[in-house]
TrEMBL record:
Belongs to the TatC family. Forms a complex with TatA. This is Sec-independent protein translocase protein TatC. It comes from Mucilaginibacter gossypii. GO terms for biological process: intracellular protein transmembrane transport; protein transport by the Tat complex.
């Protein structure tokens, strides 16, 4: 092997080692970001665990009580419109525990779920801190406010899910029967799982504008496509609203549907803004040439 080939091989090996070190450095940085996020979640979980009695009775069990804010508002709406069927005087739900350590694990699991939910903003911020150095200036500028908007949308979704989707779903599912022979007795784990799933799922669904923004930047999603599929989105939204509303009344369905419609339309606007920015960049590039 000639001297030049040996030198080239050494240089190539050095570049490989440098790349590997860089990769492991990134992994180490990511690990510490996740560690800090985990610590924040543990702290939130500990706080929830400490105040668990109030949180369980007021927040977790709230949708199972006829005095819940949503049910009271529905009664007021019904009274204002002079229409029956809005008031939910009683939520027919009977909860049981079937495991010896069920209530203990219930407290731990539900405290952890709430802790994770409260820690989501910090987790998003840590992930953003990890990704940000790898972005170009233009990409950083385009992603300005990402953490803020993602957190706002998440908690708007959580609020909508908890105060609208969850109580209406629980009221519907707890009173639904296929036969009077069957008595509904729900395990507490099933109840907690339903509340958590409906609430968190809505928080995730409210990230739609963020997802559309990313897909639009990648050229996968366009406002034209979203406008063309709007009628299918409307059908899906109406089906969801029909399932979770306690009555077949169109007004109640509308209350549930409107935020979802707005979310879809906002996503179309977001995709349109991204497309306009891309067109402007292309025109500026052509002028520069």
């Amino acid at each position: 092997m000639s001297e030049n080939k040996i030198i080239k091989a050494i240089k190539d090996k050095g570049k490989t080692l440098e790349a590997e070190m860089s990769f492991f450095d990134h992994l180490e940085a990511l690990r510490w970001h996740l560690v800090r996020a985990s610590v924040a979640i543990v702290i939130f979980t500990a706080v929830v665990f400490y105040y668990y009695d109030w949180i369980f009775d007021t927040i977790i069990m709230g949708p199972s009580k006829s005095t819940f804010w949503t049910y009271r508002m529905l009664c007021k709406i019904g009274a204002a419109l002079h229409r029956d069927g809005f008031c939910i005087d009683k939520v027919n739900i009977k909860l049981i525990n079937t495991e010896m350590a069920g209530q203990f694990t219930l407290q731990i699991n539900s405290a952890l779920i709430i802790g994770i939910t409260l820690g989501v903003p910090y987790l998003i911020w840590e992930i953003w801190r990890f990704i940000k150095p790898a972005l170009h200036d233009a990409e950083r500028k385009a992603a300005t406010g990402f953490v803020f908007y993602a957190c706002v949308l998440f908690f708007l979704g959580i609020t909508f899910g908890y105060f609208v989707i969850t109580p209406m779903s629980i009221n519907f599912l707890s009173s639904y029967t296929v036969s009077t022979v069957i008595q509904n007795l729900f395990d507490i784990d099933s109840y907690i799982s339903s509340v958590a799933t409906l609430t968190l799922a809505t928080g995730v669904v409210f990230q739609l504008p963020i997802l559309v923004y990313i897909l639009a930047n990648l050229g996968i999603m366009t406002p034209k496509f979203m406008k063309e599929t709007r009628r299918y989105a409307i059908v899906v939204i109406l089906v969801i609203a029909a399932v979770v509303t306690p009555t077949p009344d169109m007004l109640t369905m509308t209350v549930v549907s409107i935020p979802l419609f707005v979310l879809y339309e906002v996503s179309i606007v977001v995709a349109g803004l991204v497309e306009k920015r891309k067109i402007k960049k292309e025109l500026d590039f052509e002028k520069g040439e």
